[in-house]
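On clarity, I found the account of how folds are encoded harder to follow than it need be. What matters is that the chain and its backbone geometry are given together, residue for residue. For the editor and my fellow referees, an illustration may be useful. For illustration, here is how one protein appears when written out as sequence plus structure tokens:

___
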Amino acid sequence: MCRLMTPMLEEVLKGYPLYSQDGKGKDAVCRAVFALGSVRWFILEGETEGDDTILFGIVVGLMEDEYGYISLNELSEVELDLTAQGLGKLQIRQQTNLQPIPLCKLNDQRLQRFLARFED
């Protein structure tokens, strides 16, 4: 089992398979958030495919903020080696205190700037 697939993640994804929030825009419900430094993945939906879970959401903090799909197995393998700086190896972690919430209500300026690009 993937290290990021927790009972909590399984529970919040129930009833939110891929494509279940199509067309909802900023009113789509964020089910989970993963982070590594200033990079954040806002997960909207996901479903199991074989021994992996494919997620759909928004990533902010990389070269370009964007909607996209991500493999939970691949996400769990990302590691940032900062041992030379005395910080050890950092891995992506799930934000544990998040309750499902519409994207428009999340207090994240970069996310809100990204969502504003799609307003009429």
